[in-house]
Design a protein that fits this description.
Layout (H helix, E strand, L loop, with lengths): L4 H11 L8 H14 L18 H21 L3 H10 L4 H19 L4 E10 L14 E9 L6 E8 L1 H23 L1
Antiparallel strand pairs: 1-2, 2-3
Helix pairs in contact: 1-3, 2-3, 2-5, 4-5
Pfam families: COMM_domain, COMM_HN
Family: Belongs to the COMM domain-containing protein 3 family.
Protein name: COMM domain-containing protein 3
């Protein structure tokens, strides 16, 4: 992984056992990951009691270096050997490297686990006059075609169904309610 000189210095500081012991190091690494996974800054590194004895400027620098390293790793989809050799270059001992990699595995699993999401929707209005039993129907129905990604863009599947006008209006209303709920949840 190619990292700037500033990030390299931050990682070297993070590897220093005089800066953080094996109790504070996992806290700092977990906070770096959590800051990337949450939309809010509720996991400030400066507010952690375990990290109060560390100089604030150095703490911020180490936190930034750790998050940059994590982002580069995720961007390049690195494996354990790549992360290990990179961290060893910055003088991380085996225990710190293991803590970093285990946290990396757990958090990137959380990061990439997302539910299926809709890519495309199309519809068609049908107006059957008679059904298969030669009875008059004269009632419109809507054929709905939904394409969704199932595993992070890897594969997609189609969901098709038919509904009446009332059912379609109910579906649209529920989708609007769900969108509003998501917006509220994102603002919290």
């Amino acid at each position: 992984m190619e990292l700037s000189e500033s990030v390299q210095k931050g990682l070297q500081s993070l590897a220093d056992p005089t800066l953080s012991d094996l109790k504070t190091f996992p806290v700092l690494i977990e906070l770096a990951f959590r800051s990337l996974l949450t939309a809010h800054a509720d996991c400030s590194v400066l507010d952690q009691p375990e990290l109060k004895r560390i100089d604030q400027k150095l703490l911020k620098h180490c936190h930034t270096a750790a998050t940059t390293c994590i982002l580069e790793g995720v961007k390049q989809n690195v494996d354990k050997s790549t992360i290990s050799s990179c961290l060893e270059d910055f003088r991380f001992d085996a225990e710190r490297t293991d803590v970093f990699y285990i946290t990396y595995q757990v958090m990137t699993t959380l990061l990439w686990r997302c539910p299926p999401h809709i890519n495309d929707v199309s519809w068609r209005l049908e107006y059957p006059i008679k059904n298969g039993h030669v009875h008059k129907v004269n009632e419109p129905s809507y054929l709905i075609f939904i394409k969704q990604n199932t595993n992070n863009g890897g594969s997609s599947e189609e969901v098709n169904f038919s509904c009446t006008m009332e059912q379609l209006q109910d579906l649209v209303g529920k989708m609007k309610d769900a969108a509003k709920s998501l917006e509220k949840a994102m603002q919290l």
